[in-house]
Amino acid sequence: MNQGFGDDGQPGLVEALWRYRWSSMAIVVVAVGISIGVALMVQPPAQARATIALASPPEDNVLAPGTQGDASLARYTAQRAAFVTSDVVLGAVAAVTGDDVTDLRSKVTATPSGTSNTLSVTVSAESRRAAVELAEAVVEAYRSETEAQIERRTEAAIRAIEESAASASGSRGATTDAAARSATLSQLALRASEIRVSSALLGDGVDFVNAPRRDAVMGRRLPVRDAALGFVVGLVVAATLAWIRADRSRVRAAARGRGSEGVG
Predict the structure, then answer these.
(1) Which uninterrupted H or E stretch holds 217?
(2) Residue 15: which of 221, 194, 246, 249 has the closest Cα?
(3) Contact 55, 120 (CB under 8 A)
(4) Does a structural domain hold residue 74?
(5) pLDDT (tens digit, 9 = 90+) per residue, 144-163?
(6) What angle do CA 176, 179, 185 make, to 5 degrees?
């Protein structure tokens, strides 16, 4: 009986694969699975990017007083980029997403522009949707925490001015001139008013935001090419092993045949 062997007694490749089809199929499936798994491991995570355009700060702003000119604006933009990855902002993000601050720091980067008062926020996540949602959370946390920071500093500046005004108003002595004291109080009141107006104009420090879009996110994709390569490699290995097994089976069958003839 031929048992799937060729006319020359050698096992046929297709016949060998069919004879050991289940083990061959298992080898191919494992090879494809390994190829896909390795490809997914080395693929970069999904990344989403948002661009924050900073509002031009007035000269008497409380975040970076005296910010005028390209050099100082560049320093201001770099300062705000660093604030994006601060514990304050990332802590606010963690309170919303439930992530760990240390883990977020490895996922979030902020890069200031060298030519304008904009900064780019780039986040990494396991999927496109997660990347976009995290980028949105970081931008929202930055805006809210910047606004709170401006409010705190404004209140601190106003309290300092009020304390100075109270001290000037309570000053008494032969050398104290009422007109000079009145002028000082007027200047302090004007300064307090200017700070309030500046802070109100600055708001949350953001002019506009280019929000991340899911269709622009470079995300993880099913590695079709790697799966095809795994299929080819698995098929070659399965065919080789099936042929070797079939050939050994042929040799054993031939040996049994010669043994039977010798006994006869």
Answers:
(1) none
(2) 246
(3) no
(4) yes
(5) 999 999 999 888 888 888 87
(6) 90
Task: Looking at the structure, tell me whether residues 33 and 96 fall in a common domain.
Answer: no
How many angstroms from the chain centroid is the CA of residue 43?
Answer: 14
The DSSP element (H or E) to which 53 belongs, if any, is strand 46-54
Domain that holds residue 16: 1-43+222-250
Residue 217 tokens, joined: 């996110």
Q: Would you give the DSSP letter of residue 216? A: G
CB burial class (10 A; 0-12, 13-18, 19+) of residue 50?
buried
Number of H-type helices and E-type strands within the chain: 8, 4
Overall number of domains in the chain: 2
Summarised one tens digit per residue, pLDDT across range 205-255 is: 899 998 887 665 555 566 778 788 888 888 888 888 888 888 888 777 767
- Cα–Cα distance between 139 and 122 in angstroms, integer? 10
Cβ contacts of 230 within 8 Å, gap of 6 or more: 31, 32, 33, 34, 35, 36
> Which residues neighbour 24 within 8 Å (Cβ) at sequence distance 6 or greater?
17, 238, 239, 241, 242
CATH of the domain at 58: 3.30.1890
Of 114, 113, 95, nearest to 104 by C-alpha is 95
Q: How far apart are CA 219 and CA 201, in angstroms?
A: 39
Q: Are residues 135 and 13 in the same domain?
A: no
Q: What tokens were used for 194?
A: 């200017």
Q: Are residues 77 and 31 in the same domain?
A: no
